[in-house]
Amino acid sequence: MKHLWTYLFVGILLTVPLWLHDQYFLHILITTGIFIIGAMSLNLLLGFTGQLSLGHIAFFGIGAYTSALTSLGFDIPIFGDFRIVHQPWHPVAGILLGTLVAGLFGYIVGKLSFKIRGAYFVIVTISFAEVVRLVALNWVDLTQGPLALSNIPPIGFNLPLIGEMVFWQKAPNYYLVLGLAFIAYVLIQRIVRSRMGRAMIALRENEPLATSVGIDVTRYLVFAAVAAAALAGAAGGLYAHYIRIIDPDIFLFIYTVTMVIMVVTGGKGTLAGPVVGGLIFGVLPVGLRAVAAPEVQWIVYGVVMILIVFFLPRGIVPAVSGWWHRKTGSAPAHVRPATSNSPSRWPDHHDSRNKAAHEAKLASAKMLSTRMEMKP
């Protein structure tokens, strides 16, 4: 039954341009899909490692600007008469380069900032996003500053026997976004279910315990930061070539908040959570415009978000999944979302030996954390 609903959902997504003739709503679905990709990348950090990054939009914007400048070309002066001249490249090369550059910045930020935790890490990520925004605003020779980069070429392909295809229409862009979202989903799924993904989840659940069993904290956190930044950069490049104009406002804090809302309301630490949360909070404002004034729209938007967080604190996907498994009597298959200070619950099929080993590890982790606190 679960697979039937999955196939039905995928079938609906594949046929949207065939029955949705309103181009504005199709545009909303395209932009929502791009931000869902960004939310999925943020979920890799927030949901599976427990690290809150409030500067994630910086990687999105870095990917957008890198891809746009690569496809437009530039000529900027450096140190007097010395100039850097770049001829325009194909938009696909721009998106690939934007993904790599965003991943590189993710590595730098992760390597420097994962030595700290909690509120300090949040402050570092916010500061990084603001620094990148100021660079985009003030480096006028390269980014055009507040005048924006315009006339960004759309994505296109030169296929054998078909010729050159340029995605001017919304339907091809919709399928392009849907394809990239599917690739991002599968990639994150493979990461989460791999050895590295299990290590990241262990760090999320109990970092001292994970450290005591030999997990390299910095290594896995930096890997998650690089993967999340690269996916956000790819989404940003796709956004730049679809909108075809970008300015420093792309780094606004509200976009990071939007991604966080998508992750938290949908269910952090689940693969489908950002997708569900993104669709709800991406389409909801558009649906309210036909029946409510602008002020009422934001009130309803906020009330819906508060109700979801209040009544479904773990998110929509874990709540619905838990209800379904209670109804059918089957065991949940998704990754359990992060819960702080939650007691370990062992199913009946675990024997006493496993339980004793687990309790011994918890005791050793508590001793380790106590020793760390006693250090000056």
Task: Lay out the secondary structure.
Layout: H1 2-19, H2 23-46, H3 57-72, E1 74-77, E2 83-86, H4 91-113, H5 119-138, H6 140-143, E3 156-159, E4 163-166, H7 170-192, H8 195-205, H9 207-212, H10 217-243, H11 253-266, H12 273-289, H13 294-311, H14 316-328, H15 352-374
Antiparallel strand pairs: 1-2, 3-4
Helix pairs in contact: 2-7, 2-10, 2-11, 2-12, 3-4, 3-5, 3-10, 4-10, 7-10, 8-10, 11-12, 12-13
Organism: Undibacterium arcticum
Pfam families: BPD_transp_2
InterPro entries: ABC_transp_permease, LivM-like
State the gist of this model.
With 376 residues, this protein is mainly alpha-helical. 68% of the residues lie in helices and 4% in strands.
Low-confidence stretches: 334-353, 367-376
Strand content: under 5%
Instruction: Encode the helix/strand succession as letters.
Output: HHHEEHHHEEHHHHHHHHH
Question: Roughly how many Å is the radius of gyration?
Answer: 22 Å
Number of helices: 15
Give the N-to-C terminal Cα separation: 57 Å
Biggest pleated-sheet summary? 2 strands, antiparallel
Structural class: mainly alpha
Structure, described:
The chain has 376 residues and is mostly helical. It has helices at residues 2-19, 23-46, 57-72, 91-113, 119-138, 140-143, 170-192, 195-205, 207-212, 217-243, 253-266, 273-289, 294-311, 316-328, 352-374; strands at 74-77, 83-86, 156-159, 163-166. It has a two-stranded antiparallel ribbon. A hairpin with a 3-residue loop joins strand 3 and strand 4 (163-166). The longest helix has 27 residues, at 217-243. It starts with a helix and ends with a helix.
